[in-house]
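Researcher: Structure for this, please.
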Amino acid sequence: MPDVSSSASQPELTVLFAAVQQHFHDVIVPLWQGPGWNAELVLPYEALDAEHRPLPPQRYRAMACARQLYLFSSLIGEPGVPSAEDRATALFRSLQEHFHDAEHGGWFYSIDAQGAPLDQRKDLYTHAFIIFACAHYWAKVREPRVESVLNAALKVVSERFASDDGLYEASLDRDWSSLKSGPLQNPLMHLAEAFLATLSVRQDAAVQLALGSLCDAMQRRFIDRQHGVMMEKPLGAVDNWFEPGHQFEWFFLLESTPLLKNSPLHASLERAFTYAEQVGVDPQTGTVSGMLDIDGSVRDATQRIWAQAEYLRALTLRPDSQALLHRQLNALQQRFLHAGGWYECLDAAGIVSRRDMPSTTPYHLATCYRGLIEYFG
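Model: Predicted structure, token format:
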């Protein structure tokens, strides 16, 4: 663990988190109840500008709808968001009405600004988030129709995307014909997350078996042997790299469940966490670099809020992490959050390089804050 010169008491950390959490409830969530909501299509806009105006819509993605479904599902029952269940219900219906492919099954990637199908390919990333969101939504409402969609999405992933080696194709055509995409790390990570979300709300032997097989295959095909790092493409692929944020995200998923905690993949990500911290986190500012080569040289120094959130969340499961948690929570608040929302990206010098606020980002903040709530117990 890196040295952190300043330490903080538990009460100081608690006060800081309370301020960050208040910002989430008072500033970020209302953005997607008001200016970020397209009432005509009953969907969130893809992004807002710095003045809270929707960017001119070019498309609406099923994945973005699913992430917002998770967001408002997570807020059901909270006194400050009495409309959360109504919004989650609307998002669930829109997911089905706008994106479900009645002819071939599964869900389209996107629709256009008028609501007509746009990119009709089927991608694993989208389907993983549909599983993830429906599992969380069903946990709150326990409606049979929600579990029915969850089951349908799990079946599609198993029957259409799965390969014999425990991995899954990243993308298929609308009619499920091959696009020769092969497996990619990021959709597979979110599929593992979706499987874990399902297992958190019900016993499911098939999902548990699929999760174990997926993690075994990731260990074989994606883990660099020297540092334990999870690569973005399978080993041996041309132009490969790793992202520190994904090491932290994977570590949290593996550390958070007894199903995976003693697996070979967990052991690899323990090593990867340490290496990613050494080469991918600025010891002064606490900011996380975007993309690195396996030797630790920086390929893309862009600092993204999602990676900050994932490092912070992962620290909640690391021993003796209170001082680091304080540094990272302070870095998130001071560098990325502001009175009008958040900064999506900073450049290598810490200058804001992207001012729009995507509808997909609150998912990362919500899961991060959930990890902190559990940390404080």
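Researcher: Any notable elements?
Model: The domain at 223-376 is CATH 1.50.10.10 (Glycosyltransferase). The mean pLDDT is 96.
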